[in-house]
Amino acid sequence: YTYIRTSHIGERPFACDKCSSSFSRKHDLKRHEKLHTGVRPYVCKICNKSYTRSDALARHLKSEPGKES
């Protein structure tokens, strides 16, 4: 019931206390909160650009001209 209520009806009960973002799932809020810490542990070995999430680095690597295999 909670999934249907939040995902399909548009309810966003999980609000970030540092900005105006809100989310339908607690997991998404927790993931978002990492943006506010300033910690960026995922670093591209080619250009040194850093990311808060591993999937963002993976997406970047796919578009990097000298990408790693």
TrEMBL record:
Entry superkingdom: Eukaryota
Keyword annotations for this protein, in alphabetical order, are: DNA-binding, Metal-binding, Nucleus, Repeat, Transcription, Transcription regulation, Zinc, Zinc-finger
Recorded hits in InterPro entries, A to Z, give: Znf_C2H2_sf (IPR036236), Znf_C2H2_type (IPR013087)
Where does the C2H2-type domain start and stop, copy by copy? 14-41, 42-69
Where is it located? Nucleus
Gene Ontology terms for molecular function: DNA-binding transcription factor activity, RNA polymerase II-specific; RNA polymerase II cis-regulatory region sequence-specific DNA binding; zinc ion binding
List the GO cellular component terms: nucleus
SMART domains under this entry? Answer: ZnF_C2H2
A Pfam family reported for this protein in Swiss-Prot or TrEMBL: zf-C2H2
What family is it from? Belongs to the krueppel C2H2-type zinc-finger protein family.
Instruction: State the name under which the record lists this protein.
Output: C2H2-type domain-containing protein
